[in-house]
Amino acid sequence: MKLIKSQLNTSVSLRRVYPIICSYLFDNVRIKSYEIYTLDRTTILKVDTFDSIVLVLFNKSRKIEQTEIDFVCDKLLAGVKGGDCIYLDGVLEKMAAQGLEFTAKDFVVIQKAVTQD
User: Fold this and answer.
1) Where are any strands of DSSP class E within 1-116?
2) What is the SS3 assignment for 17?
């Protein structure tokens, strides 16, 4: 597996690229920085808020395997000091209940609290 970081223009806002995801997950949250990665056809958003790091994985054509989730966590959360990872389940269903439609076969959200030194 190869994790590839996407090159972004510095003026691109995450809220402009993925407005539905941002309006549900990061509506009242200040975003410190973000990075976009790809793993085959899976898109990964690494969003650094001031108190946690959130990984959003989604694939529009197939289910995301547990080995891919473990690989991404090992690569992107390896040097982060903090608590355990929290997996948020049923995010697509909760988004649809609020009227936010995002088309994907699988959608995984992982959150890890960050401790300040």
Assistant:
1) 3-5, 31-39, 42-49, 52-59, 82-88, 106-114
2) helix
| pLDDT 10s digits, 5-57 | 988 766 678 888 899 999 999 988 898 999 999 999 999 999 999 889 999 99
Please tell me whether residue 29 adopts helix, strand or coil conformation.
Answer: coil
Q: What is the pLDDT of residues 88-117, one digit of tens each?
A: 888 989 999 999 989 999 999 999 988 765
The answer to whether 27 and 95 are in contact (CB under 8 A) is no
Show the CA angle centred on residue 48, arms to residues 42 and 50, nearest 5°.
160
DSSP 28: T
pTM of the predicted model, to two decimals?
0.89
